[in-house]
Amino acid sequence: MTRTLSNRITTLTPGGSDGWEVFYRARQMAEAGEDVIELTIGEHDIRTAPDILSAMHDAARGGHTGYAAVPGTTALRDTVAARIADRTGVPTTRDNILVTAGGQAGLFAAQHAVCDEGDRALFIDPYYTTYPGTIRGVGALPVPVLARPEQGFQPNRADIEAAAHGAKSLLINTPNNPTGAVYSRATLEGIAAACAAHDLWLISDEVYDTQVWEGDHLSPRALPDMADRTLVVGSMSKSHAMTGSRVGWVCGPEEVIDHLLNLATHTTYGVPGYIQDAAVFALNQGVAAEEKVAAPFRRRRAIAHDLLARQNTVRAAPAQGAMYVMLDIRATGLSGSEFAHRLLDEAGIAVMPGDSFGAGGAGHVRVAMTVEDAAFEAAMTRLLDFAATVRG
């Protein structure tokens, strides 16, 4: 008898290149002792603050190591709800919050909540790399909606509506990874109108909400009549450099959260209590702690903009938020993948090809601002010199 794996698990990601070969090669080169500056993944160059780790240690030593409440501890759900209510003006209580094992688990839960097998699920392209696979993982059909560089990577209502026939959901991300775009009020109002017109659930990935360099972050849940059709995914990973702690949340209507509690019971069965206690401690440090984590990326964005202003080969996307700069390298005549591979081989700099984030990223590379300032400035200088040489 031949045993086969499920179609669901074997088709999470399609065959062929996923654009991550540069990342893997860079790691291999670094492990072999070669001088490589990695500007690939969104991992802080600082680690979780010692006082947060002390709170985690104290909670664990204090005995909070058994099963925690599956929807999240009352303390963390209350703290997250208060944070969201304060920042958005939308009344929010613990009954609107499910604590998840990081933002990725929150995305998976949100898609499960609103999509059935075979449903069309829209997402904006360029996109964070797990989005299509997360949608396939719940049995839905991922449908990209292109955001164009000439429009600052702001999604267009007409494009969403053109793809919306028969769809159940739309997934957006602002501030955006990989482009750095912060969606304007006009953009979000267009998105809201499209969702209302086509009865779409909106899933809003807001894990970068503390990293805004231009404009303001607006949660679409705060727009008129959107609270009942919006699920917001948040996380401690980017705001507090707690990437490895795996603690995030979904915020949505009470009925949805009730059902997601049932899903969590049958999947993760909650998040460790001592980690949740540390998250409560971290959130209670207030905006100043979040700004301290965000400050290096604000500085490095300024460094990048200063260097870019001195040349005319590479152009930057708006870079209004998040820890990345999306660079338009089309003037070199190379594709994003060609540019990234040659940059690694010839200059020892590892960046992500834009097309690893979808068709909308073609002709671009994404630079993660995740090394200390001097190294980042040196890497950006070498990247721009390489681009100028290639252009001739």
TrEMBL record:
Q: What does the record give as cofactor?
A: pyridoxal 5'-phosphate
Boundaries of every Aminotransferase class I/classII large domain copy? 35-383
State which Enzyme Commission number(s) the record gives: 2.6.1.-
Species this chain originates from: Salibaculum griseiflavum
Example GO molecular function: pyridoxal phosphate binding
Q: Which Pfam families match?
A: Aminotran_1_2
* Record's keyword terms, sorted: Aminotransferase, Pyridoxal phosphate, Transferase
Q: What is the protein name for this chain?
A: Aminotransferase
Q: Which PANTHER family match?
A: ASPARTATE AMINOTRANSFERASE
Known catalytic reactions: L-aspartate + 2-oxoglutarate = oxaloacetate + L-glutamate
| Similarity-based family | Belongs to the class-I pyridoxal-phosphate-dependent aminotransferase family.
Top-level EC class as recorded in UniProt: transferase
Q: Which GO terms describe its biological process?
A: amino acid metabolic process
Where are its TM segments located?
none
Q: Which InterPro entries match?
A: Aminotransferase_I/II_large, AspAT/PAT-like, NHTrfase_class1_PyrdxlP-BS, PyrdxlP-dep_Trfase, PyrdxlP-dep_Trfase_major
Instruction: Spell out the Gene3D superfamilies in the cross-references.
Output: Type I PLP-dependent aspartate aminotransferase-like (Major domain) (3.40.640.10)
